[in-house]
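# nightly structure sweep
# worker-07 picked up a monomer target from the shared queue
# config: single-sequence mode, recycle default, output format = structure tokens
# input follows
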Amino acid sequence: MKTLKKLTVALLSMQIALMSYAQVAETLRLSDHQCVVLCFKSDIKYVDFGSGNIQGEKLSSEKLLKLKSKRRGFDDSTISIVTSDGGYHQFNVIYSDMVDKPVWRQDGNSYSLDSIGFSSVKTTHFICDEKISDIVTGSPDIIAGYAEKIDNIVKAKALKPDFEMTNIHLITQSGYIYTFNVKPDVAPKRLSVVLSSEDEVTQSSQAIFKNNSVNDNQMRIFAEKLESSKCRINDIGVVDLKMAFAMSGIYSYNDLLAFRLDIQNNGRIDYYIDFIKGYIRDRSLTKTTAVQEEELQPVFVHYSKERDSDIVKAGEAVSVVIFYSRFTIPHKRMLYFEMFEKNGGRHLAFPVSDKEILKAKAIY
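# output follows
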């Protein structure tokens, strides 16, 4: 009898725990010309669509799922989702010509919702204050994509003058979601829309170029700060032919590495810089080893002199800050910096070890 009571109590406790952990089923309205985005607190690990008429896809963030109906009208169905924290979420799904909740958030927070007109002969640009990781359009009647090589500017337009009202979601790298209801408009008043995650409409925004976490202007500000800072390294470089070519600092910021190089002309003849290159090469080479250099492509280069930056006059010094996409190198290889003189023979080069790169100081 006691065993039966214990078992009953255990089953009741388990049932209560499951009821408190499982989410109460909510109703989602899906359309064939509008998208719905579900936003969870944890990564999505499992999804089951009760009907083949529902299509869905995870976005760049594993916490986000976009949903849409494949066709107009379908029988009521369900969607079941399991997240990485063990949460089980179930939704009752019905078809609707207009969705009432284009963004569902597990945390219950609200989302930004606005209306905008799209034209088939004019392009609308969305400029955000951070990278846009996903673009979700609710209808094939409108198109949207990144401005060339720019991660925070999206261009969009309609493919035909008349289309059924739809929506567009712009999702930032930090997870902020901008949602717009889109309607036909022959002459849209808003062709440039500036977005800010601080809920403030700014008058301007700067482009964030693809594959970089910051833009050229921000890198220029960093470079000016670094060129005026105290030298951190004083034993990497070369002195030869009345010239000094050395590295005085290595810095990191998000997905970038910055190298400060100092050039000193101790001679009486001006030095005209043809180019400076950075490349990775094996530490030791034998006579039978083919030289394999992996040249690094700079993201941004800043000289301490704006005018005649390629000239180091006799008795003068110039600093150069070169930004590269972040990298590391294996122990058997070295980073080399090499400077070539235009119409001259004063070529200078020096190596940088993998250990020095790992000591890069953060830029604040």
